[in-house]
Design a protein that fits this description.
Chain lengths: ~70, ~450
């Protein structure tokens, strides 16, 4: 069975710090003092992938991406 | 007709340079560029390697000299794999780093070395377009060199010349590509999801190389990887160009063997060391070290990173004792915050706050707003790695290392306030602010 390593990254040139992602994925994403998301660089745990995909979908700036492989 | 009487069509190959004067060979005391005829007489013709040059450059262990120290062969392989999509080579001579002069020197004195390297790279990866991306003041000289080559029928691919904007980020890899794609401002892209090696200039796989890197390629193509590795020490072979300030007066470009002793290169003695407050390595995105640490440092990127700095684009600036180090640092941080792209929240918000805090350290005192180094390092951690490019990372390193190296000055300022006399002129060049020396002068020494 293949195990995919996925990392959730934010395109900082598109992100406006709206915070929708942090609301939808509080187990993974926190916000800094200016409202911008802080994303761990570790592999995204499998059980959070579904939530991450929703966050990606709901980001008003389409700034979130799932990339394969480690960061 | 015997061999003895037949005129050989093959020019005698040039002898490979011995020692560590390679790129700068023959360039001392010159103010005019080496023209094509003289270039070919000195170096011989550029051999046509094609794809096998990738292996030779790998064997040489050549890394990029634009500041990132990325292995050249790795870049080439990823683009060569996409050769059906007609790769592009960009010779990056933008040199946005104010304290660096080495690229300007190469472009104004030895443009054909750079252009040879660009052509050799183009043939290696199957590129069908080559662009020389240089500052406005170099356009005429580079265009003249290109015209000479065209008349001589040297290059199978026409070399284009494009102007880089006068901006700190003009030489950043994806920002340069965006400018070449028509962007007015040099704005970096978020390359984690798509590298310029995949989609770059005109959507084509693009290799961006610092002009010094290409000059090294031009010599490897002539003299080979084994020759290249005859100079240098340990992991990294070859030579590199440095721009040294604060040692011999005006900013001076020198060529040095990688891995060699910085103390030897800079001819440090106790008097020099005692007369300098600290040393900046790498550039404004590099890091400060104490003079003592500098004296023990080999010219090696890994060794530099281990002590919190980087050799970067080869800037070495020795800070004299008659300036306020904290004012110098604050002025640079100020400059850097004005010259970010302004695209990324953490950087656009964090850098102005960092600049304010650094000015507090420099101009504050016992009666002023208290700024502690803890808040400064916290901010550094908050901006690091959270931009599309390495601009905030560079600022963080510059600031953190300054707080370490100038800890004593910080403590003195806290107790007694700012230095009594703060010079109007900066030592570290900040465009727009009066500085101690002419900004475009450069000198070459062995």
């Amino acid at each position: 069975m293949t195990t995919w390593r996925l990392t959730l990254v934010v395109d900082p040139t598109r992100c406006d710090g709206r915070g929708v992602c942090a609301e939808l994925l509080p187990e993974w994403i926190t916000t800094d003092r200016w409202g911008y998301p802080i994303l761990p660089s570790a592999d995204l745990p499998g059980e959070l992938v579904g939530h991450a995909e929703l966050a990606i979908d709901q980001c008003p700036r389409m700034a979130l991406h799932l990339v394969e492989g480690g960061r | 007709m015997t061999n003895a009487t037949r005129h050989s069509a093959v020019r005698q190959p040039a002898a490979p340079p011995l020692g560590s004067t390679r790129l700068l060979a023959g360039l001392e005391d010159r103010s005019k560029p080496v023209r094509l005829g003289e270039h070919l007489a000195r170096w011989g013709e550029l051999p046509d390697w094609g794809r096998p040059l990738v292996d030779e450059v790998q064997a040489a262990g050549l890394v990029g000299h634009g500041g990132a120290w990325f292995p050249v062969a790795t870049k080439w392989r990823s683009v060569e794999a996409r050769r059906l999509r007609r790769p592009v080579i960009v010779a990056n001579g933008a040199e946005g780093e104010p304290a660096s002069r080495k690229d300007a020197l190469l472009l104004s004195l030895a443009p054909h070395l750079v252009l040879d390297g660009a052509m050799a790279a183009a043939r290696a990866v199957g590129a069908t377009r080559v662009v020389a991306y240089v500052g406005r003041r170099h356009v005429a000289a580079v265009a003249a060199a290109v015209a000479d080559r065209r008349r001589a029928g040297l290059d199978p691919v026409a070399i284009e010349v494009a102007v880089s904007p006068d901006a700190f980020l003009a030489g950043q890899e994806s920002a340069a590509v965006n400018v070449l794609n028509g962007s007015e401002r040099p704005l970096p892209s978020f390359t984690a999801i798509r590298s310029v090696r995949d989609r770059g200039v005109a959507g084509r796989p693009t290799v961006v190389h610092n002009v010094e890197t290409l000059a090294h390629v031009a010599l490897i193509a002539r003299f080979g990887a084994r020759w290249f590795r005859r100079v240098g020490d340990g992991g990294n072979a070859g030579t590199m160009l440095l721009t040294v300030s604060g040692r011999w007066g005006d900013p001076t470009v020198v060529e040095a063997p990688i891995g060699g002793s910085l103390a030897d290169l800079l001819r440090l003695d106790p008097a020099i060391v005692g007369n300098r407050a600290g040393a900046l390595l790498g550039g404004y995105g590099g890091g400060w070290v104490s003079m003592h640490a500098l004296a023990g440092l080999p010219l090696d990127e890994l060794a530099a990173r281990r002590i919190g700095t980087s050799l970067g684009a080869g800037v070495v600036a020795l800070l004299p004792r008659d300036v306020c180090p904290l004012v110098e640092v604050a002025a640079v941080v100020d400059h850097l915050r004005r010259h970010g792209a302004g695209q990324c929240g953490p950087c656009a918000n964090g850098l102005p706050q960092l600049a304010d805090l650094m000015w507090d350290l420099a101009l504050g005192g016992p009666h002023a707003r208290r700024t502690d180094v803890g808040s400064i390092t916290e901010l550094c951690a908050l901006v690091e790695g959270r931009g599309a490019c390495r601009h905030p990372d560079g600022v963080a390193r510059f600031v953190r290392s300054a707080c370490l190296v100038f800890a004593e000055e910080i403590a003195i300022h806290e107790r007694r306030g700012p230095c009594r006399f703060v010079a109007r002129e900066r030592f570290l060049p900040v465009p727009g602010v009066p500085s101690r020396r002419p900004s475009s002068h450069h000198r070459v020494i062995r």
